[in-house]
Amino acid sequence: MNVLVLGSGGREHAIITSFSKSKLVNKIFALPGNGGTSVLATNIDGDINDFEKIKSEVISNDICIVFVGPEDPIVNGIYDFFKSDNYLKNIKIIAPSMFAGQLEGSKEFAKNFMKRHNIPTAKHGTFTQENIDQAYIFLDSMTPPYVLKADGLAAGKGVLIIKDLDEAKHELRSMILDKKFGDSSSKVVIEEFLDGIELSCFVLTDGNNYKTLPFAKDYKKIGEADTGLNTGGMGAVSPVAFLDDVFLEKIEERIIKPTINGIVEENMEYIGVVFIGLIKVNEDPYVIEYNVRMGDPETEVVFPRIKNDLLELFNSMGSMEFEKIKLSVDERHAATVIMVSGGYPLDYEKNKEITGLEDVSSSLIFHAGTKKNDNVFLTNGGRVLAVTSLAENYKQAINLCYNKIKSINFENSYFRKDIGFDL
Ligand code: AMP
Ligand code: GLY
After folding, report:
1. What CATH number did the domain enclosing 89 receive?
2. N or C: which end of the chain has fewer CB within 10 A?
């Protein structure tokens, strides 16, 4: 079968790498893809939110299944677009409905969903211009630090954690009244701060059954010891060293089952991935957020550990076959270290030649911000490459990544040298 993957990051290159090994695969297309995907797939120029363009590519390339990488098209209703089109309704699309997409697209929607289904999460209040005075009173009643979240999508930038009360009120005003994050912050969720260690949980569901994929932990800050600005992710490991059977059982009973039951009860039409951002506070799990897609860079450590035919697995979703497939997971530990363009997540330069990509014997190299020009790979974004390794333990896996990185070069590259420091 012919497959289309939407997106252009390391996540999409990792997915395409897994699909390329499938016994079911014929041709793979990536829209828009990157330098790495162009080796395994045909890249198609285009915008992931241009559904008419996607439709015409699905038809002209005889696509049977579409995998949606990023959240934007999901939140914008790509599933609903497919289901309401006479041709596309017969094409399998791995993406939840627009209604379900609100689990990621609206923090308020997600918090209310958790409340309805008794899922543990931080206490919160939701505020707009109309009740901003109550927001000040709410902040007065809380202890620092204060967590302010833009309700809508803000490209990972919409969460502020502030120690000082006056500064929190000032930022609240700039979010709601001055639209610091555009329309997405005209509504703000204020949350109790949870102090703990985070981990990422991925659940595949087709609205009938679910399968929990290997857990992972990502590193979001640009600087060592988790300092500095937030990024799209600087590294990840899987499995998660502190996840024991007792804690796993709590996650399953208190969070995964009620989440899936909630999705079913509310008729959400969900064929895809529920990404549950968790935090361990003392010995208990809480939900920090839902996303409606795989994580990046978590995908780069989760998918290489899955031994199943992933295209077969995704293609089975929505049929009886899905329940029958048993996940087979590589027991080894995977680590990924992200190489970024110097300056990222602020300003950085592009179009730097990348060398040292040929030898992939000890590690996997997933491309993110790259493009291919006449057989030369050039940097084309902030996050450039994800270097993934597998080994008997996470320390060895991380060391393999660092060894591999020594032979990869591009001008002004940067990576964190302490991935896994907190495990
Ligand atoms: P979110 O976009 O909701 O995942 O938030 C981004 C990041 O902010 C999370 O990964 C956490 O590190 C942090 N964060 C969000 N909410 C809280 C909270 N209630 N308590 C502590 N940290 C939080
Ligand atoms: N790694 C976090 C995310 O994909 O949102």
Report:
1. 3.40.50.20
2. C
